[in-house]
UniProtKB/TrEMBL annotation:
Reactions this protein catalyses: D-ribose + ATP = D-ribose 5-phosphate + ADP + H(+)
Enzymatic class: transferase
Source organism (scientific name): Mangrovibacter plantisponsor
Entry binding sites for K(+): D227, T229, T265, R268, G270
Record's protein name: Ribokinase
Record's keyword annotation contains ATP-binding: yes
Amino acid sequence: MHIYVAGNITVDETWQCSALPHKGESLHGEKIMVDTGGKGANQAIVLSRCGLPVTLIAGRGNDHYGEWIYQQLQAETLQLFPETPLPVHTDTSIIFTTNDDDNAIITSCDAASALETATITALLETARPGDVLVQQGNFTPEKTRALFTCARSKQMLTVFNPSPVQEDFRQLWPLVDIAVVNEHESRLLQPDTVHTLVVETLGSQGARLHAHGHTEHVPAVPATVVDTTGAGDTFLAVMLASTLLRNTRPDALALHHASQAAAITISRPGTRLAFPSRATLAALLAQAG
């Protein structure tokens, strides 16, 4: 079984400020960290640290940021596709974080958009039944649909985290086996809980598992919040890893494992630097409940 994560990779610049800026407002802030990020990269990194074979399908630019990203990923065990940079700027995320633990993120998608659908589907043609395709909301609905359609034709498991959210994503539920959404995304997209297994994240209130007309709530693991960036990606990756490693469907134990891992991520500053280590994840996933 191999996991393909198709999405984005960015350079994350984190700024500390007293409050999130309003329209037309200028604020002083402090640039406190530069790290590798992007929802696709985040999920791929954590999945690979869980001991799973992962290919990250994400474009990077032919600038100094693109080379820096490539060097950072050498410390991880995942495969990057394509290895050759694209003739665009590397995608960048500007993360504003406040003293009361709130955050807001602005991210570019030039490199993600420049990676052509045909290039990705050519790689997915090498996948086998039982392999996994994970996508987020960084591609257009048309591109996202094309990749899920290709995955379905190869009998792959499809996983969707529609963030950043786009309304047209609601047309994709027939192609999705597992969805991970927050409350806003759930209200906007109305996932099909009859045919799609839906995990709804609730922040500090935990998560809900919706499957075949039944709903189960799993409380969050208490944590000291330092930086919430990457918490949702950690949650998704560990939930999926717990499910796959136990050869089962997402269940309460998978959500509990995911909550434990997310609690570690939010207790540290940064994105990749805040993720749990391979050893920590191995010990966590070995717990029976």
